[in-house]
Amino acid sequence: MNNKIFILFFILFTSLFTSISAQNKHHKKGNSKAKTAKIPEPKEPEKVAAVVKVDTFKVKTILDIDSLDFYLANSKLKLLKKKAHASYYHNKFNGRRTASGKKFDNNGYTAAHKKLPFGTIVKVTNEANGKSVIVEITDRGPFSKAREIDLSRRAFMDIAVNKNSGVVIVTIEEVLQPK
Predict the structure, then answer these.
(1) Which of these, 153, 155, 167, 156, lies nearest to 91 by C-alpha position?
(2) How many CB atoms lie under 10 A from the CB of residue 126?
(3) What is the pLDDT of residues 24-58, one digit of tens each?
(4) How far is 15 from 4, CA to CA, in rounded Å?
(5) Please, what sign has the CA dihedral across residues 54, 58, 63, 68?
(6) Confidence (pTM)
(7) For the chain, what is the mean pLDDT?
(8) Are strands 168-176 and 121-126 parallel, antiparallel or unpaired?
């Protein structure tokens, strides 16, 4: 019994001694050679060349343009409906398959429309505050005669004035790709 206790203490003492000596060696090496790490500086946003057509001549300017603004600047909008009622998906649909086959994500920028083809890109603008969002049609609905479009929760909250409301009056425009 005493022999087992002695062996246990011996093992603990040697492991403690080796860990202390290893820390001292590491500490001495750390003092002799100071290592520095080069931290890369954050890159500035890239500048995008935009061509603006003014009457009969073109003016080329270099601007900081957000990718969404650049997307809209190079495309045309086709008005589909004014004063349309927009609502948003319930959380219970999150993760389910949509009619197009894609998985629905309430944090994405997608929408459901009764007639527009799947994959159609639509700009939805709140008429009360002018905020807009670009969404892709991935589902069918809403199944109510009073509403025209169902937005994902994130898209709806981006344009809503009152976050507790369930319906917003919007203008719906189709984003046409440049040819």
Answers:
(1) 153
(2) 19
(3) 555 555 555 555 555 555 555 555 444 444 444 44
(4) 17
(5) positive
(6) 0.60
(7) 77
(8) antiparallel
